[in-house]
Design brief:
The structure is a single chain. By secondary structure, the protein is mostly helical. The chain has helices at residues 2-7, 32-50, 69-86, 92-105, 111-115, 121-138, 141-153, 157-172, 177-194, 203-212; strands at residues 57-58, 64-65. The N and C termini lie far apart (83 Å).
């Protein structure tokens, strides 16, 4: 019997270990408060959609202002967005997009009028600038630029500040100022992290970010 046990290979008789082990994801509790406020906002809007025309408005001079169907739904949409914003049940950006979609779905305005504000060139300009900065940071280009610049200017903080200002000034000749700020911000964080041992603000850090401005 003892000889048979010695001849058994190591691990014989034990269950095989799986190649991959999956850990069950943590259960996220349902936020019923948020759901209730979202439904409350929708209920207010559909109440305005279902009720008949509201009474006409009369100014002190006696002039009558009739409220159109579009105006009635606009009031409901305003209250719905107000509920969502006040109770912070949805991100502000998501609420803003929902307002545009509701206007298109219920024919309050045309799609070009309702969604044209979201596609304004200035909005996409800022969005593109932020994307450029994130791409610089995600690709590691900012750290490479920081190390390259430090190799050129040395470890003297005065020369580091001068080199940073020259890089920013050079980039503003080729890129928009917003894009430069979005791209240079991670670079300054990387430089500051190399010369700061704590999270407390320093004169060097203040000089870097004032120089960026």
């Amino acid at each position: 019997m003892a000889e048979d046990i010695k001849k058994m290979p190591v691990g014989a008789g034990l269950p095989e270990m799986p190649e991959e082990i999956f850990i069950a994801p943590k259960k996220v509790p349902i936020d019923w408060r948020r759901i209730c406020y979202i439904l409350l906002g929708l209920a207010v809007f559909f109440i305005f959609y279902a009720i008949p025309a509201l009474p006409d408005g009369v100014d002190p001079a006696g002039k009558v202002f009739k409220l159109s169907w579009t105006g009635k739904l606009s009031l409901g949409l305003l209250l719905m967005a107000g509920i969502w914003w006040v109770f912070e049940v949805m991100p502000i950006g998501a609420t803003a997009i929902a307002i545009g979609l509701f206007q298109v779905l219920f024919h309050l305005r045309t799609a070009k009028q309702a969604l044209g504000d979201f596609l304004d060139p200035s909005v996409w300009f800022i969005f593109g600038s932020v994307v450029i900065g994130l791409a610089f940071s995600a690709s590691g280009l900012t750290k490479r630029m920081a190390y390259k610049m430090l190799n050129v200017v040395g470890e003297n903080t005065r020369f580091i500040l001068l080199g940073t200002f020259l890089v920013i000034a050079g980039m503003t000749l080729l890129m928009a100022h917003t894009a430069v700020a979005a791209a240079i911000f991670p670079l300054l964080l990387a430089i500051h992290a190399l010369y700061s041992e704590s999270d407390q603000p320093t004169k060097f850090g203040k000089g870097l970010f004032i120089g960026m401005a």
